[in-house]
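Can anyone check this?
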Amino acid sequence: MPCYRCGARQTDPVRGASPWQRGVRNESQVLICPDCQRLHDLDLDACSTCASTALICRLGEVECRSCGAVWLARSSDALDRPAAVAPPPGLSAEVEAALNRVLGRA
């Protein structure tokens, strides 16, 4: 999944915690790259109880990691969600090359 702001894709992870951040925007889980995290206005959803943006979205629910509030995502039906963004050119070739490396294919 690319960064929702700039479209950058994650590279192979290094050991340790990922510098990428998760967030919820329009009640859908998004990733935020380290460069975009420096921006002050990420336009993320906030908890209506405590105003925290530390939210996670899973199985049609949004949960606040700060206060524990849980609510149903209005866009839990896949038909209500916007169409998926087309992958950047060359992504399928990169995925195929990565699979070949991992699976030891020539």
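Reply from J.R.: I decoded it. DSSP finds two helices and five strands in the chain.
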